[in-house]
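User: tokens in, sequence out, please.
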């Protein structure tokens, strides 16, 4: 292995301080030799174009050819070689993810504790992210701390929080070497869930627990997703929101009115690891992403293998753009009790997410220290006497 990297310039050292020399970095990563970038031979060199446009431009200049994020030729072959290696984590990687997971658990505990005195989402976010920064880690992605849980990737924090609200917090830490955790919990701002909030929370938790129980080597991740879909459909029939047989409702994608995304994704050196490679990593060779309403957002369609780390994160959301769409309301008019749904107006979004390591005999929940049971979450939010 040869490392091509330039030593820091005097100007770089002036502004950013000393950094390791080329030879030191090579020794740290186990490279056999280290050379300056100008000695990199462009002929026949494959690369993975990075997402940042400025850095991608530098890559193009070094290699002497224009790069595109639409992988082709030798770049695509390189990506196809890297993906299966990155899917399976070694002991060192798993140890790093454990560290990120442990700090993430502490961050969520801090968020729950801060909610009682907080006035805005931003104050809860600050409590959570301060724990991550205090461990000399960074956030693995833009934190989601919101009372608008129906916005799946909500990165606004200015809303006031009120006793009747649910607060959805999707926050994860990333270690100094880049390994990520990704955890979501949903709790009642008042510390106590309303009856309707409790009913939907228990439906989502049942789907979460069912998928984790079934996750082991050889199991198709798509089957876990469909298992979550049917569990959610079953629960929504029981509370009167949906009508019909759960398996039929899933077949017609009625569940996706409330659970439109996939049940999770790969976790590793990125929170949605390798998704900048398109579906090369997430999808087994020969498989294509579905155009079905209930399957189109599935990020992972592979059999699980020992050493993989995945998230399990079912949810329930009342997304106006979906529920108020005239075509969908017409299509699903016979299976949705819209009047009954109005009783659940205080449930805008609930998601429960854990990080799961696939082991030889089953799985290990790396974030199990953070409870998911409703009563345990309420207890965490109860201030000591």
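Assistant: Sequence out:
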């Amino acid at each position: 292995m040869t490392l091509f990297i330039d030593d820091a310039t005097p100007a770089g050292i002036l502004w950013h301080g000393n950094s390791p020399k080329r030879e030191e970095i090579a020794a740290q990563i186990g490279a056999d030799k280290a050379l300056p970038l100008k000695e990199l031979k462009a002929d026949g060199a494959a690369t993975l174009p990075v997402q940042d446009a400025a850095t991608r431009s530098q890559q193009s200049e070094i290699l002497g050819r224009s790069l595109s994020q639409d992988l082709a030729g030798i770049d695509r072959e390189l990506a196809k070689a890297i993906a299966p290696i990155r899917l399976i984590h070694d002991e060192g990687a798993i140890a790093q993810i454990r560290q990120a997971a442990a700090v993430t658990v502490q961050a969520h505990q801090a968020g729950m504790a801060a909610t009682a005195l907080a006035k805005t989402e931003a104050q809860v976010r600050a409590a959570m992210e301060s724990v991550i920064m205090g461990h000399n880690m960074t956030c693995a992605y833009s934190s989601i701390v919101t009372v608008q849980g129906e916005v799946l990737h909500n990165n606004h924090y200015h809303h006031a929080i009120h006793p009747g609200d649910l607060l959805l917090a999707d926050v994860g830490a990333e270690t100094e070497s880049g390994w990520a955790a990704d955890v979501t919990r949903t709790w009642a701002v008042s510390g106590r869930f309303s009856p309707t909030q409790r009913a939907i929370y228990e439906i989502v938790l049942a789907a979460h627990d069912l998928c984790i129980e079934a996750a082991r080597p050889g199991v198709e991740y798509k089957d876990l997703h469909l298992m979550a879909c049917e569990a959610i459909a079953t629960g929504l029939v029981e509370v009167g929101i949906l009508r019909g047989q759960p398996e039929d409702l899933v077949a017609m994608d009625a569940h996706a009115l409330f659970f439109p995304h996939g049940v999770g994704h790969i976790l590793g050196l990125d929170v949605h690891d390798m998704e900048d490679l398109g579906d090369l990593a997430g999808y087994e060779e020969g498989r294509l992403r579905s155009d079905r309403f209930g399957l189109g957002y599935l990020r992972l369609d592979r059999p699980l293998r020992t050493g993989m780390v995945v998230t399990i994160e079912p949810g329930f959301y009342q997304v106006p753009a979906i529920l108020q769409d005239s075509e969908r309301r017409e299509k699903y008019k016979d299976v949705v009790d819209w009047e009954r749904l109005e009783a659940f107006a205080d449930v805008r979004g609930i998601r429960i997410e854990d990080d799961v390591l696939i082991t030889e005999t089953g799985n290990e929940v790396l974030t199990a220290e953070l409870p998911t049971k409703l009563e345990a979450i309420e207890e965490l939010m109860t201030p000591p006497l």
